[in-house]
Amino acid sequence: MEVTDARMLREVQAWNATQVLTIARGLCERALEANALSNLGSGWLALGEHARAQPLLEEGLQLAHTIGVRHGEFGPLINLSQLALHQGDGALAHAHAQAALPIAAAVHDP
User: Fold this and answer.
1) Which pLDDT score, from 0 to 100, does residue 10 have?
2) pLDDT tens digits for 18-30?
């Protein structure tokens, strides 16, 4: 797959996540909304659109936390960790990654 094809695929995925976000908000499905925010932020992060990714990831994280969907906090934390690394903030990246560890252990512990 060429770089332009990969970018186009990511843009389509971001568009799809935007549509899911609109539907989730219309249906007042808070868990789906949190997931869509996180997916949309992840898509923008993958495209290098850090300024677009950060508020979406933060909102998805906050919403997942507010509604008690603990496993929904993991993805945004990891993505915020990656974003902090891209921005040169190793301490913040470490803090986000550390916050994600107990969630991963709790969610994935049989």
Assistant:
1) 72
2) 788 788 788 888 9
Show the domains of the chain with their CATH numbers. 3-108 (1.25.40.10)
pLDDT tier at 14, thresholds 50, 70, 90: confident
What token pair was written down for 70?
Answer: 């603990």
Three-state helix/strand/coil letters over 51-96? HHHHHHHHHHHHHHHHHCCCHHHHHHHHHHHHHHHHCCCHHHHHHH
**If you ran DSSP here, which 8-state letter would residue 1 be given?**
-
CB 51 within 8 A of CB 66: no
Q: Note the Cα 58 to chain centre separation in Å.
A: 8
